[in-house]
Amino acid sequence: MKDKKIIVGIDEAGRGPVLGPMVVAGVAIEEDKIKELEDLGVKDSKQLTKNRRKKLFRLIGEMGKIKTIIIEPEKLDELMKTKNLNKIELNAFSKIANGFLKEIEGNFEIYVDACSSNAKAFANQLKAKMIDKTPKIIAEHKADEKYPIVSSASIIAKVTRDEIIEHYKKEYGEIGSGYPSDPKTINFLKHYVGEFGELPKIARKSWKTSKRILEENKENKTKTLMDYMK
């Protein structure tokens, strides 16, 4: 039905971490279900407990369609050679939106959490990549705190990334949250590089934190060798 209104929300999780993927997620539901979505108490994923996010993840999936794109660290490093994070995110957002447009009939409104400092420019850039130019695009900073549909996408992205991090922990042990501000993450990287002389495959090698830890390890080994030779 072409006259059916479809509301889409798109957001990401894991833009800044030095470990693990960036996950972009989209949620598409019929407009008359928005109130139901609000009644669930969806909000920015960072404001919810882990258990509450998992429960909402299931409920959101039952209400509408969801899509995710997982950009692994190695792929991110490859993309970063020619694009910045904003462009990478923009491309992923457009893939999610176009995927819904291909699969669902209806009149679309698309809400996204703008990753660019210029939200209006981001909206225009996203529209330029759409296979259908008619949907209204609302791109705002902190959209995940303002619009339940974007909050829902935030939850899907966050839970998906958290599950991947938990899988990493089974393989590598305690790695923390993956963020450079997390001492557990930094300790893991330092110990790993110290033992193996290279970064783990789950690390983003193009990140400043990764490069700094590699350089520090090299300097420490050089100093140790010089001390030994005295």
Helix-strand pattern, N to C?
EEHHEHHEHEHHHH
Proportion of residues in β-strands: 15-25%
Describe the sheet with the most strands. Answer: 5 strands, mixed
Number of strands: 5
Rg, please?
20 Å
For this entry, what is the oligomeric state of its chains? single chain
Distance between the termini: 81 Å
Mean pLDDT: 92
Overview of the structural elements:
The protein is of the alpha/beta class and 230 residues long. It is 53% helix and 16% strand. Helix 2 (50-63) packs across helix 7 (148-172), helix 4 (85-103) crosses helix 5 and helix 8 packs across helix 9.
Brief characterization of the structure:
This protein has helices at about 35-40, 50-65, 75-80, 85-105, 120-130, 145, 150-170, 185-195, 210-230, and strands at about 5-15, 20-30, 65-70, 105-115, 135-140.
Secondary structure: elements and pairs:
Blueprint: E1 5-13, E2 22-30, H1 34-39, H2 50-63, E3 65-71, H3 73-79, H4 85-103, E4 107-113, H5 119-128, E5 136-140, H6 143-146, H7 148-172, H8 183-196, H9 208-229
Parallel strand pairs: 1-4, 4-5
Antiparallel strand pairs: 1-2, 2-3
Helix pairs in contact: 2-7, 4-5, 8-9
